[in-house]
Amino acid sequence: MNEAPVLALRGVEKSYRSGDHDVLPVLREAELTLHAGEIVALVAPSGTGKSTLLHLAGLLDTPDDGDIVICGQSTRGMAEAGRTALRRDQIGFVYQFHHLLGEFSARENVMLPQMIAGRPKAQAKAEAERLLGMFGLSHRMEHLPGKLSGGEQQRVAIARALANAPALLLADEPTGNLDARTADAVFTELLDAVRQKGLAALVATHNEELLPRMDRVVTLRDGILVPR
C-alpha cells in the first residue's frame, strides 16, 4: 500500500509499576501499521496488554517511549489539547460494555459526540438518524438505553463511534457481552459499516470464529506485537 497508514505504532514501550519497586513491562518496542480499509484482529490472553495497546492507540494513555502516529500526525510530545482534538476527530471507540448515557435516548447518545465536535444540532440529529437507521434502529431512536436489548445497545454504541466519521475504529471485545447469535449479527453489521466507510479498524477479540472475517491477525508475545 502506498498511502500513509491511518495508525502507526513505532517502537512503543509501556510498563507499569507494581508495589514500590517492581516494574512490569507490558509492551516492548511494539510496531504496527493499519491502512484505510484494513481490519486487523488483536488476539492474546487476558492480562497480556491488549487493552493497554488499544488505550495507547486511541490516545487515552501515553507510551513510555516510541510514537503513536495517527493519519500522519506524530503524537510524541503533542500537547493534551492536540491529542484530544485528534482523538475526537479521527478515532472511534467501541467497548465490550456499551457505556451509553442512560438518561439520553439512542438518538441523543449518537448526537452528543457530534455536538461536542461543533456540529449544529440539526445536522447531528440527521446523521444520528441515518446511522441508527443503517443498524435497523429507526423504530428505537427515542428509547433510553435501559429499554433496549443488549444487541440494540451495542448497535447504538457502534453508531456513536462512527458519528464523527473517524478514520480509525478501535474495538475492545465489541461483542464479548452478547450471546453467540446476537454477537454474530452485530459483528457482521460492524464489519459491513467499517468496510463501507473504508476505515482502518483494530479489533481485540477472544472469539476465534470471527478471525477469518478479518484481514490480518496479530498477537502479543512477551510484550511484542507479532503476526499470528
From TrEMBL:
Pfam family, one: ABC_tran
GO cellular component: membrane protein complex; plasma membrane
SMART domains (alphabetical): AAA
Domain ABC transporter: 7-226
Gene symbol of the encoding locus: lolD
Keyword Cell membrane applies: yes
Gene3D superfamilies given in the database record: P-loop containing nucleotide triphosphate hydrolases
Record family assignment: Belongs to the ABC transporter superfamily. Macrolide exporter (TC 3.A.1.122) family.
Protein name: Lipoprotein-releasing system ATP-binding protein LolD
